[in-house]
Amino acid sequence: MNEDNINSFQRSSLWHDAFRRLRRRKFAMVCFWIVAGYFALAVFVYIAESIDPTMSAINWKEQLGQGMEYQRPSLCSVKTIFGTNFLGQSTLISTLYGVKTALAVAFAASVISIMIGVPLGAAAGYFGGVVDDIVVWIYSTLSNIPWIILVMAFAVVLNDDKIMGGKLSGEPGVYLAIGLTSWVGICRLIRGEIIKRKESEYVLAAKAVGCSNSRIIFRHLLPNVFHIIIINFSLRFVSFIHMEVIISFLGLGDANKPSWGKMISAASSELTRGIWWEMTAATMAIFVLSLALNIFGDALRDCLDPKLRMER
Amino acid sequence: MPAYIIRRLLYMIPIVFGVLLLTFLLFNVVGADQAVYRLAGNNPTPEILDDIRHELGYDKPLIFSIDSQFVTHVKKAVTFNFGKALDKEPIIDKLKNGVPYSLALTVPMFFGIVVTSVSLAILAAFYRGTWFDRIILLICVAGMSFPYLSYIIFGQYFIAYKYDLFQIYFSPQRSIWSNAALPILIGIVVGIGGNVRFYRTVMLDEINSGYIRTAFAKGLSTRVVLFKHLLKNAMIPIITNTVLTLPYLCLGSLLLESFFGIPGIGGITLDAIESRDFSVISTMTFIFSILFVIFNLISDVCYAFADPRISFD
Questions:
Q1: B289, A147: Cβ pair inside 8 Å?
Q2: Nearest Cα residue in chain B from A272
Q3: Which of B90, B32, B40 shows the shortest CA–CA distance to B61?
């Protein structure tokens, strides 16, 4: 599967080798476990919500104390460690719920962008000609519209819209907007890689034994560029999370569920009254997750493909 | 050279057409019903809906006709006559009023980002492997991870409100510079992170090469080597990357303008998103992408000046 086999007496694949190198980087592994913790939390919130939405650990609607008022952060109970918002709802639980919102959106957006970008890039690179021209035209059009405007335009249109009978609002609108606009980078990368590799011997051999085009692309070419997809995915994930925050901050996300952007939007006007904890909690949640993802993504890139230069 | 520029200008035509097609699909095909229902208010009768459709031109055929929606859409864009916003002000007037403010914000921000991050990157590359390099890298990654909104909100709160160093909010009486100082500063801080990291890798590629060693060996000062020899050779990736930073500037101007109340085109766009004014958003998408295409062209032309080896055949 790769050239490393020649140099190594042990049987080791690209992935095996990469993970061995990755495990040696202690700091990157710490970051990996932080990210894994976030994901575990998101899965927990998702499962808990589908079993019982009023479960005490995830019930962000519950009012603590009497009346609707702010409570300062205090160590009296777990739920008020980060204080409460103006309705007396726990900031901690909103923040934890925000993990699920952010990760669900970022994950769905990544899946959509890979589902569009990879096949288009592969087809453009492999077939060339008219197919290539059309794909290049589409992505250079998209890449010439500043991303932020494009995402917002999509999010505005996809918000509260009826498409083919079904009503689209909240989360699906957000991840569709991000996913449909962000496949350009991966498409361009894959196209370049496929063009580089389609003349190689193993493709020729596959052609000679009569493999169909789709088999050559999906069984022979794509597995060889898979690490590029993973690297791109891990580095892109952070920007998806930040994008989700901005979109929900602008009120284009799901209005009925907590998200970090909504927390920031609610807290930003209260900062002058000395209500600092809600803003800080959301900021720190985003900061720790993105920092861990950034560092882990960089380490993963170095381990999987030392030759690949940082593109941004 | 002129032939190259003309060819690049011709190459813009399909891109601009694509942008028009996309905004048309988004706002006239997918979003049309939404716009109509939003204007119609609660419980609209079918007659009211038809009236609004007629007024907005949504009752015309989509593509295949002389006065079809698509033809009108293209005509509007080509003649720069974008029609009126929801508040009845012509969009072109809004644009004309907004552009100076946006430029006053983005141009200093752009140069600030490029100059600071290139200098920092050169220093980091020169002191590669030392604590200085590592701290710069760590700050950059941390800076990239901090959410954009928090930069703006905390910056506005601490720097302008608590310590009263800058203006908190736009006011037309003051000069534009005193209004824009803090947003520019925040924009630069946000922009540095990713750029320093990128430029550092570029510089590292160059700094290990032979001509740098030669320059040091013949006794040139560090300043001359770094800023004349190294910088000139690293210019091409820098030019490419500055174009890549433009969308981020765009984002910066959007959010910064709305937080600091600066009446530029970014602020107008966000207002339009809030009020779901499709014609304004569609126009802004078009304008921003035209600007982007032009900047791309400029950067390609700049290649010629940076690298005499590049030919334009």
A1: no
A2: B157
A3: B32
Are residues B146 and A238, on separate chains, in Cβ contact within 8 Å?
Answer: no
B-proximal residues of A, 211-250, CB under 8 Å: 238, 242, 245-246, 249-250
Query: Closest Cα to residue A34, out of A298, A291, A271, A256?
Result: A291
Instruction: Measure CB to CB from residue B147 to each of A148, A152, A283 and give the nearest one.
Output: A283
Task: Identify which of B149, B250, B292 has the shortest CB distance to residue A246.
Answer: B149
| Same-domain check for residues B292 and B153 | yes
* ipTM of predicted assembly, 2 dp: 0.82
Residue B89 lies in a domain: no
- The one-letter amino acid code at A89 reads Q
The number of domains in chain B is 2
Last residue in a domain, options B79, B112, B145 = B79
Nearest by CB to B153, which of A264, A287, A309? A264
Question: pLDDT by residue for chain B (313 residues), tens digit each?
Answer: 778 788 888 888 888 888 888 888 888 777 777 777 777 777 777 787 788 777 777 777 777 777 778 887 888 777 777 777 777 778 888 888 888 888 888 888 888 988 999 999 998 988 888 899 889 989 999 998 998 888 888 888 888 887 777 777 777 777 777 778 888 888 888 888 888 888 888 888 888 888 888 999 999 988 888 888 888 888 877 887 777 667 667 666 788 888 888 888 888 888 888 887 888 888 888 888 888 888 778 877 777 777 777 665 5
* Same domain for B120 and B12: no
This model's pTM is above 0.90 = no
Of B79, B106, B137, the domain-final residue? B79
CA–CA gap between residue B33 and residue A35 (Å, rounded): 41
Residue B6 domain boundaries: 2-79
Dihedral (Cα; A41, A45, A47, A51), 10-degree rounding? 150
What is the CA angle B23-B251-A42, rounded to 5? Answer: 95
The answer on B145 and B8 residing in a single domain is: no
Please indicate, yes or no, whether residues B158 and B10 belong to a single structural domain of this protein.
no
